Amino acid sequence: MLRVEAPAYCPIARPRWKLYACRNVLQETVVHGAEVKSYSRSERKNRKNEGAYIDKDGVARTFDRKKISRKRGGGMKGRGWKYGSGFVDGVFPVLSPMAQDILELVQKGTDVAKVWQSLDSIPHAHDLWDDIVNVAVQLRLNRQWEPIITVCEWILYRSSFRPDIICYNLLIDAYGRKRELSKAESIYMALLEAHCVPTEDTYALLLRAYCNAGKLHRAEGVISEMQENGIPPSATVYNAYLDGLLKTRCTEKAVEVYQRMKKERCRTNTETYTLMINVYGKANQPMSSLKVFNEMNAIGCKPNICTYTALVNAFAREGLCEKAEEVFEEMQQAGHEPDVYAYNALMEAYSRAGFPQGASEIFSLMEHMGCDPDRASYNILVDAYGRAGLHQEAEAVFQELKQVGMRPTMKSHMLLLSAHAKSGNVSRCEEVMAQLHKSGLRPDTFALNAMLNAYGRAGRLDDMERLAAAMEDGGAGAAPDIGTYNVLVNVYGRAGYLDRMEAAFRAAAARGLAADVVTWTSRIGAYARKKEYGRCLEVFEEMVDAGCYPDAGTAKVLLAACSDERQVQEVTAIVRSMHKDAKTLFTL
């Protein structure tokens, strides 16, 4: 059995404590032989079956191993990992020297067959299973999916161990993260064939795998299978479903699942409400997020720091600084000390609102309060200065990021590119792109779109078209998205090249990319500059027929196309009727 001894030096004789990581227990071992002998035989037998652990509230509790080992779902060896956390009761896996060696082996090994041969050669001991499981859990905490598959498939197909639910769940999770659905499903079928009882975690992991791959009908099939088997989906399962829908931005479906939870009287918890606040926040519906927050307070569900941070983020995305500040203060009044994520959310609010100095002040406050900024903090500050056109300040923050020992990510370079693109400093943009390549980073679509925008703003259309063609042909290393064509449509429209603009619009449709509100508005704006009022209305009708809802920017460019009072009144009536007839998707 894996154990890590950590005896503390004491001047007086007292019991020493040993941490048994694989069983999540703290057991007291008395080192004096006389005291051990003083126990009767029955007492020693009871103590042998007795275990102890520290629960999430820090309270020491005991359990009977024999009873737990007979619980549905497997023995203690399958209870060391739970969905969403990677560990139980806040106890991380502590690796023995043997487990450390195994961890290094699977992390460095690239040949699966050789890794399996090395695992085969390990002498079988009573604590080998615990070492293997702890290694797998540690790999999951490190988000290393390939080594997890190597270890768990060795258990499943090669070793003499009988796999339990933890092994199957780890494999389903790893394949789901890699979007290899067929393999995740085959592991689930192997689980059933081995007569291993699926747990809530199993269904939760399957749901998330299907959502990540966009297979919502299969996700619904998991819920149906649970109900057919007489297992009502719990909050754990539904929360995993909501989490998957949140990450794939399937807002309507997430709202539908949330309504179903309430209809089925499934007991919602803090995580449920936090997820829904994030769902509405990412859909640019901050007031709906606030409504969910008020609803959870009304039923006595206590928000945690993640809940408050999600609500701050919801207002931050819309640049609503005052509302974000109110929630931030309410969080502190509730006894939660802001962490780096909360500070970052508040910084984002000032950045989106166009107040870079406010974001800088929050950054300084965070440091003053002893909270270390992370890479995202610097990125937000670069973005804040870039949005305001302060490219020199953005450059200074980027250099500070490197000076403090943090490595700039792709997003860091992309934000710096955007800052210099706005100022028209194309040469510096090209230098940043060269630095990106030198750092071993491969430009993604966002970075290339920023470079396209820089060329377009500087009037270097030949360079812009050359880069766009490389993206379409696959030579740039990243495929174009709708943002790529938005840049092209906008640049051509502003330059008055309407034929090229329409060609870019058709090229996006040919690649299966649906035009968004930015695409349509940029297209309407091109005709508005020419005062082609009739053509603007035609494009507007196409936009509505395509199911794209206009925003304030669309109304602004329509009004710009008007040449007389009659046309202004006509556009005003159209816009008002659109808002009157609009139905919100996000009902509670």
TrEMBL record:
PROSITE patterns: PPR. Residues 249-389 form the PROP1-like PPR domain. Keywords: Repeat, Transit peptide. PPR repeats lie at residues 164-198, 199-233, 234-268, 269-303, 304-338, 339-373, 374-408, 409-443, 444-478, 481-515, 516-550. InterPro entries: PPR_rpt, PROP1-like_PPR_dom, TPR-like_helical_dom_sf. It comes from the Eukaryota. SUPFAM superfamilies: HCP-like. Signal peptide: none annotated. Pfam families: PPR, PPR_2, PPR_3, PPR_long. PANTHER family: OS02G0170000 PROTEIN, OS07G0661900 PROTEIN. This is PROP1-like PPR domain-containing protein.
